[in-house]
Amino acid sequence: MNTLNLYNTLTRKKEVFEPLHAPNVGMYVCGPTVYGDPHLGHARPAITFDLVFRYLKLKYKVRYVRNITDVGHLENDADEGEDKIAKKARLEQLEPMEVAQYYIDRYHKFMDMLNVQRPSIEPRATGHIPEQIEAIQQILDAGYAYESNGSVYFDVPKYNKDYHYGKLSGRVLDELLATTRDNLDSQHEKRNPADFALWKKASPEHIMRWNSPWSIGFPGWHVECTAMGCKYLGKTFDIHGGGMDLQFPHHESEIAQACIANNAEPAKYWMHNNMITIDGKKMGKSLGNFITLEQFFTGDHPSLEKAYSPMTIRFFILQAHYRSTLDFSNEALQAAEKGLKRLQEAKKTLQTLTPGTNFQPTPTLEISLLSTFCKSAMNDDFSSPLVIACLFDAAKIINSAKDGKTPLLNDGIKALKELFDVYYTQILGLSDEADSNNSELIDGLMQMILDIRQQAKTNRDYATSDHIRDALTALNIVVKDGKDGASWSF
Amino acid sequence: MNTLNLYNTLTRKKEVFEPLHAPNVGMYVCGPTVYGDPHLGHARPAITFDLVFRYLKLKYKVRYVRNITDVGHLENDADEGEDKIAKKARLEQLEPMEVAQYYIDRYHKFMDMLNVQRPSIEPRATGHIPEQIEAIQQILDAGYAYESNGSVYFDVPKYNKDYHYGKLSGRVLDELLATTRDNLDSQHEKRNPADFALWKKASPEHIMRWNSPWSIGFPGWHVECTAMGCKYLGKTFDIHGGGMDLQFPHHESEIAQACIANNAEPAKYWMHNNMITIDGKKMGKSLGNFITLEQFFTGDHPSLEKAYSPMTIRFFILQAHYRSTLDFSNEALQAAEKGLKRLQEAKKTLQTLTPGTNFQPTPTLEISLLSTFCKSAMNDDFSSPLVIACLFDAAKIINSAKDGKTPLLNDGIKALKELFDVYYTQILGLSDEADSNNSELIDGLMQMILDIRQQAKTNRDYATSDHIRDALTALNIVVKDGKDGASWSF
User: Fold this and answer.
1) Is B292 part of a structural domain of the chain?
2) For residue B314, what pLDDT is reported?
3) Residue B402: its chain A contacts at CB < 8 A?
4) Per the CB < 8 Å rule, is A97 touching B123?
5) CA geometry: angle at B115 spanning B111 and B119, to 5°?
6) Which one of A188, A302, B28, B116 has the minimum C-beta count within 10 Å?
7) A264 and A289 in one domain?
8) How many domains does chain B have?
9) A245-267 per-position pLDDT tens digit
10) Cα(B343)–Cα(B394) distance, rounded to whole angstroms?
């Protein structure tokens, strides 16, 4: 495939990607809710759309917006009542923004470790209250929302008469009406159980609150993405992405909001990554079976047999197609670790290969075909597993050349280097792991070298001890001999 | 000094620090304007208040707010006119938030390298438009501001009749009136030249704009800090900090705004770090003599003789008291580099010292006095240069013990370790530099070891080659012998 095809959830088929305003591409992805430590479930959408971002950037000028949902549900202790809280010094109160900032910093830290590139813009929900109020007002003015007791709700049945609520998720409104349950305290405010909140009046204990034309309160969950997507990417942009669990009600409601507020479909292509499962069940907080990224990196969790490096986690995720479920197991992670290591070593070996003089080298054509396969795989809905399979084939060729069985010509080596540079490094975003134990390792190696040097001196083998001294000098390392043995410094 | 004393710009004297709501402490510091790459002038306030934050945290529960000024002055090409711009797709337009996000990410990256801890909350000006509009409305309602052609100005002479405009900076309003010049286009809107903008109506080419009761526009520079300080720290908080160049008009105006909008002094203590100079002149963009942090770290600037590491920059800044000017020169930076290295090596040596049996060891009392001196220095308005001087004294003691001249008792070693842990690591925030060339170094050391091993094999010195193999195995390194020599992997 020479052109990019991607699976559009909206049409339920693969479509040729044609940007609305080439060479510009706008992509909006639902980011984290920052009230908990980032876990494996956060890593999958981040890495999936990082893959998309990296690939699109090779051809287009991409503006990638990934929001931060920091409108939280933190509440003060209800027992204290509003008065007592008001009397407390501001500083003595729980400040939701301090909690949010903590988890934003943690999210960035772990995404950096996973080599996920920062989006072009990372807007926060709390930073766009006026834009959200404006969108709500437009929906009210158009007659598709109503105010009830200081809150504002979207009128889903009315919308569904004129448009189609369910076009993305395939849900049918009548069935929804029969099964929807909501928290009791707002159910009586709604005309219909399927209606969703655009603005909620704050209860006394709710500590994130803003003025609005309707009440002191806070925006509903879905409206932030409508307001921020439109603000930074325009009324209709190219790609809207997120986890599959966001299809309904979040993305379905975003479409409804945008159709009324902006009179436009928000996105041309909708992309959804599938879920991570554990023993066949969805990994999630409610099931108590989720594992944080920090736990993966330290190995400190009862379900983990060992620690797994950030690049192992990234590779594990990329080894599955983003639309397939991905089942967590120690076996699968260890297989990913082994596979990644094979590629890392092949990449390292590649740097040391010299062109062979054998009469039957691996044909350069075969190598250039690998590059064609990789491109086709990416163009076929970002098929990272196929790209990885191609890289394993390349590793075989490299190892065979290293063993002297099938040497490579200069062009072949060059083509393999380019293959790894483009697909392994740039597109899959696999980096050579920065080993946090480097300084320990350096100490170990230096100790070994100083021991050998000492032994050489004892043996009056001055050729060796002089060689060591000179080689260390070349590395800017100074050795000082002291009473208790030699020490070294830079 | 057993209690913390700090110099309060407001009273022009050192005062005992007494928090308003101990054990809580609220501190607000003016952060970066994110429309340029971070330079040395950004590093000084960040490191100064990082020192304060780190020290206060040892005793108090500190909420440290440092804002990001992302309300910028980016304009579309005026020649295009409003209509043309409106017709352009959103994606094809310059998006100020994309520029801001880029520089926010750069700022974080370089502050992390300088080991500056993240503040508790990092609010953005654009994320607090409703709060700013509210503060402006309160000032209007109180009669200390007026609307003029869609903009809102603070009435400085009226405020000065009832309060004192100039109490922080020492400026005298009458003199200001005689000398103030402003940009011509807003001067006709003001009743007085000294009045400052609370809200500015946006000109057609201004691309950051919000609705307000007065016009589609954007907030004035000073009001963001009043709104965000109050929101996250309360009407009056403990410490307000920033660079000395912010005293006037920024901080003077913040006081005026808070006195009217909140009927309260915003901060009990005002702290200002002094400027960085170069050849005696202030380093700044306008003089074309500023150097970015990236340039320092790479050495890529005509004024730099070499690259300086992040910790050298940090140490250079901490070697001066924050209220003194700090003159940039290559000599001063190289002296800082040398001094830091001396402390780093002393700290390393300390780990290897064994208690001496000499009858005349360095008295432990002398060491514990160093700790007392360090504490007094910090309590005397955060005197980091004196703390560093104490650490140099400690380094002398350590080196003397290492040379066997004056050994240390167990208690002495323990006390020195604690001194370095508390003052060097925790308070001054000096970290052992993560050497970015580690992998190169490891490759170099491994090459040396493999050469020695090869030589030993050639010499039939199997004792040495076996020793090397075993020692490498202990470090989890596998050596493979191939046709073109040995290679290694983990």
Assistant:
1) yes
2) 98
3) 482
4) yes
5) 65
6) A302
7) no
8) 3
9) 999 999 999 999 999 999 999 99
10) 9
Q: Is a pLDDT exceeding 90 seen at residue B361?
A: no
**Residue B280: pLDDT over 70:** yes
- Does any CB of chain A come closer than 8 Å to the CB of residue B288? no
Instruction: List A residues 108-147 in contact with B (Cβ-Cβ < 8 A).
Output: 108, 118-124, 126-130, 134
Local confidence band at B459 (pLDDT 50, 70, 90 cut-offs) = confident
* Interface membership of A11 toward B (CB under 8 Å): no
B40 min Cα distance to partner chain A (Å): 24
- Chain A touched by B23 (CB under 8 Å): no
Return residues 399-418 of B near A (CB < 8 Å).
402, 404
| Residue B458 pLDDT | 87
Report yes or no on A16 lying in a domain. yes
- Region B327-335: mean pLDDT is 95
Closest residue, chain A, to B92 (C-alpha): A24
Q: What is the pLDDT of residues A56-104, one digit of tens each?
A: 999 999 999 999 999 866 666 544 555 555 566 678 788 889 999 999 9
Any CB–CB contact under 8 A between B433 and chain A? no
The domain that contains A92 carries what CATH number? Answer: 3.40.50.620
Beta bridge partners of B87: none
Interface test with A, best of B445, B446, B464 (most A CBs within 10 A): B445
Which residue of B20, B101, B464 is in closest CB contact with A122? B101
- Which pLDDT does position A120 carry in this prediction? 97
Q: Which parts of chain A sit beneath pLDDT 70?
A: 72-89, 178-185, 285-286, 357-359, 433-440, 484
**Amino acid at site B171:** R
Q: Are residues B330 and B418 located together in one domain of the fold?
A: yes
Range of the domain at A392: 278-427
For residues A159 and A287, state if they share a domain: no
CATH of the domain at B328: 1.20.120.640
Lowest mean pLDDT across B2-16, B141-155, B282-296, B335-349: B282-296
**Among B63, B118, B130, beta carbon nearest to A91:** B63
